[in-house]
Design brief:
Layout lengths: L9 H10 L3 E3 H15 L5 H9 L3 E3 L3 H14 L10 H13 L20
Parallel strand pairs: 1-2
Protein name: Ribonuclease VapC
EC number: 3.1.-.-
GO molecular function: hydrolase activity
């Protein structure tokens, strides 16, 4: 999102993405397309897929295993139960990183309050 919206952190995120293999759950792709569609309208939605293609991001199915891990993340780190205040999309991203035992690339401070390893 930060890259598409050209936010101040975008260049740093681009450099990290270019230097590392990237994966994203189908749930997170849906979330990104929904947000971009709301902000930029339907014509902006393909920008998400273009960015994912440019960085050769592997889209991982959001299966039952990830659903269980996301639910566990929500119960441990979700809004109203933990200072990290992870939302549903955050929990999906957490679940994928945890399931693959890989660092998570993120913007902001919320994930720093969890036990996930940062790719930042």
């Amino acid at each position: 999102m930060a890259v598409i919206k050209a936010e101040p952190e975008a260049q740093r995120l681009v450099e990290i993405m270019a230097a590392n293999p990237c994966r994203m759950s189908a749930f997170s792709v849906f979330e990104a397309e929904s947000v971009i569609g709301k902000l930029g309208g339907p014509l902006a939605v393909p920008d998400v897929r273009k960015l994912l293609g440019a960085f050769r991001v592997e889209i991982v199915p959001f299966d039952d295993r990830l659903a269980v891990l996301a639910t566990e993340a929500r119960l441990r780190f979700g809004k109203g139960v933990h200072p990290a205040r992870l939302n549903l999309g955050d929990c999906a991203a957490y679940a994928l990183a945890a399931s693959l035992e890989v660092p998570l690339l993120y913007k902001g401070d919320d994930f720093a309050l969890t036990d996930i390893v940062s790719a930042n």
